[in-house]
């Protein structure tokens, strides 16, 4: 068993329902790590659900498919960066103003 999961025995009598400061920080760190992991797992599941190439027939619209692709890239970058437009723009190698303009164009801004 890894030592990171072992807690030292604390013989101090504390207030019921409270944690000593170090245990509280450890718990907060574990919760943050789990939240981060869940976020990445959700992103991975959404990526798996992404449709493949569209059918190239009479109904195919190149510009609509390019728009859809851009929207998926932007949503993915925002998901990976926890919603930070600045970090998402950096990840996509765009200026923040360009990303923001595209988000407005595609109606991706939070309401």
What would you note in describing this structure?
This protein is mainly alpha-helical. The protein has two domains: 34 residues; 59 residues, Arc Repressor Mutant, subunit A (Orthogonal Bundle), CATH 1.10.10. It is built from four helices and no strands. It is elongated. The mean pLDDT is 81.
Task: Pick out its properties.
111 residues, mainly alpha, Arc Repressor Mutant, subunit A, 2 domains, 4 helices, 59% helix
Quick structural summary:
The protein has helices at about 20-50, 60-80, 85-90, 95-105. The protein is mostly helical and about 110 residues long.
Would you identify the CATH architecture of the largest domain?
Answer: Orthogonal Bundle
Please report the distance between the alpha carbons of the first and last residues: 47 Å
- Write down the CATH class of the largest domain: Mainly Alpha
User: Which band does the percent of strand residues land in?
Assistant: under 5%
Number of strands: 0
